[in-house]
Amino acid sequence: LILDKCKALSAVHRIFLVAAACMGCGFDARLVHLAIGHPMPSYGSESSICSDLQRLGLIESVSLSTGSTSLSWPHRFAHDKVQQACLQMIDSVELEWMDPVEDEYISASFHLAIGRHLWVELTERDEVHEHCSLVTFLLGRGVSLIIGDDERFATAELFLYTSRQKFTTANYLAVDSLVDTAMHLLPSRSWRDMPDLTLEAHLAAVQIKLILGDSGEAWRLSDEVIQNSDSLHGSHVAYAAKIHVMGASNRIDQAIAIAL
Predict the structure, then answer these.
(1) Contact (Cβ atoms closer than 8 angstroms) between residue 114 and residue 138
(2) Is a pLDDT exceeding 50 seen at residue 77?
(3) pLDDT confidence of 69, banded at 50, 70, 90?
(4) In angstroms, how far is the first alpha carbon of the chain from the final one?
(5) Are residues 187 and 175 in contact, defined by beta-carbon separation less than 8 angstroms?
(6) Percent of the chain beyond pLDDT 70?
(7) d(CA 155, CA 116)
(8) Which residues are registered as beta bridge partners of 4?
(9) Phi, psi at residue 89, to the nearest 5°?
(10) Average pLDDT, integer, range 155-172
(11) Which segments of the chain does DSSP mark as H helices, in order?
(12) Element of type H or E holding 42
């Protein structure tokens, strides 16, 4: 019944609901509007789409003073079954900037499309730093569809930036996932074409692997940094990399000694 109710809505209402569902159980209507390229209301004004969906009992406003589990999101789905129904509609909505893909990749393509569009819109408003976690979440669902090297480099840089934000909150598993994605995005020629970014990604990976106790992977990444130090053109960055690796190695040795 919920799915039928959602499918009966206009195209823009359905796209809004699917994009919101992709963002999570709680969402900011302004960010949904930006992600789907739909004209949005001014600050402090309620979206007409949100008003319609609230009247239908599909979403509801969140009082931020009630300690809601939706954190800072001003809207949420009335029930998790509503969100699930909206996600089931993902293969029936289209955005003009979506990449044409096979049916099995439609969900990834939609996430990537709204992630890309939201990233562009937030960049123009100088708000990426405030919402980079959401942008990387959306991009991450479609990261396998990013082909161009320039976009892969830019996306890797965004994931590393977000990982540094997460690191300050000690959310190390999230940091590990973000850094792993950044590493995956780097093309094979990255040491040659983007040595500083590639070095930053590897050092971030060494650090988080050590924190999580994966010393074997930390060693492997450390060796890779040293093997590719020539790509750093003999700059001070190469020496900093080697010092970082040596420090990491010493910490591993100390941890082993303590354990024994």
Answers:
(1) yes
(2) yes
(3) very low
(4) 61
(5) no
(6) 80
(7) 10
(8) none
(9) -90, 0
(10) 95
(11) 2-7, 11-23, 29-36, 48-55, 80-88, 106-124, 128-141, 149-167, 172-185, 190-193, 195-211, 215-227, 236-259
(12) none
DSSP 27: E
pLDDT for the residue numbered 181: 97
Nearest to 131 by CA among 206, 48, 72, 63: 72
Q: Report whether 35 contacts 19 (CB < 8 A).
A: yes
CA distance 157 to 185: 9
Task: State CA 255 to chain mean position distance.
Answer: 33
Which amino acid, one-letter code, is at 24?
A: G
CA dist list (Å): 151 to 148, 177, 188, 214: 5, 19, 14, 30
Residues pairing with 75 in the sheet: 27, 61
| Paired tokens of 257 | 């000694």
Distance CA 183, CA 179 (A): 6
CA distance to 111, 112, 210, 214, per residue, from 207 (Å):
30, 29, 5, 10
pLDDT in the model for residue 254: 67
Average the pLDDT over 221-232 and give the result.
Answer: 75
Task: Express each pLDDT in 81-117 by its tens digit.
Answer: 999 999 999 988 877 767 777 878 889 999 999 999 9
